[in-house]
Amino acid sequence: MTILFFLKRIDFFQINGIKKNHVLFAFLSQVFAGFILYIIYSQYYTERYTADIFKYYDDSLVLYDTFFSNPLDFFKILIGIDCDSEDYLINYFSEMNHWDTSYENSLMDESRLLIRLNAILNIIGFKSYSFNLISFVFIGFLGKFLITKNLVKFYKSINPIILFWGLILFPSLMLWSSGILKEPLIIFSIGLILQSFGVYNSKKRSSLILVFFGLLIIFKVKFYVFICFLPALISFLICQNWKIKPLKVITITSISLNILLVILSTLKNSYNPLEILSNKQNDFIKLAEIFNAGSSFKMVPMDPNFNSFFSSIPMGIINGFFRPFPSDINKIIHVLPLIENIFLYVLIIYLFYKLFSLKIKLETVYLNALLNSVFFISLLFVITGISTPVIGALVRYKLPGTIFIIISICIMHGQTKNYENN
Asked: For 388-403, what is each residue's pLDDT tens digit?
């Protein structure tokens, strides 16, 4: 009820062209999607400890109980003090299924932040799953709202109604941002970073804080998204502030990334990016085999060397951009991402056709946003396409990129409409 009051009364939740009642309806739609996701996992994924929407909450109950039995240990685990050095704390972690991943690299311990956050929410909401669920739904919704509010502020030709409802109602985005998952936090982080642009001129310190926390959350929750997002963000900011042509900056950034990849890949430790990618892919393949994942597809395992990595890129492109194929589908739920792909690519081709047929030259600020969005999408889709052999997981891992596909479509649509109206 508190969230509904805020959405209805607080002036912050206002976008030109979108009524507050519509914002409220959009949030309730996300809550309904969360309920649908709960039903899907309850009915079709009966192994609760492997179900993504339950695993972080269930593990957080161990930490919640610690708050009452030993508050000092609770705060040590919450803050991260002595978590890996004190043997007695292992007793708590042994009761959790997902505190530690299979990776030795601490950068890849992606579950801990969500377990800690759920533990805090448990204390506030008396360990009510519904309370935690609605809290995560609100986090994801707030991210979508911030994305829309700030983009339509800077890019006047973007239709706020199309962007807002595109982010809210696009089926995969709506479903997977409405659970106790990592996706709501990622969406919220992107919203924070875009919000920093909105306050930069008047509050530079606040702007830097927003960028820092946004990037920190992405870094801790999904490291692979961070390493795709950061180069595109840096490239965008360089083009924006120094008025350099986007293609030139993206090219230089890509070359720099390759040089950095070569340097880091010479390291004989767990920070070797080829080792990380290879381990992630091989673990995913093993898990798909162990649990007999119905939506898995065959993938040639990647070895941690450059020959294997570069030979994996073409298939990564195919998997990331075009799967699922009709031949991959053996469940009704997998038809949806196929339809979504067809819809998005047909729409993109149509908008490209209009841009070229009308000989529209994109304004520099729009071209910068569009090309760097494509830069991020390409990096993310290739990495997920290389590492993820399961359709359901592939769709989820691509969601940050899907957001920027929707943004790119809105940019192109806005520019064509602006040209036709003039």
From this structure: 888 888 999 999 999 9
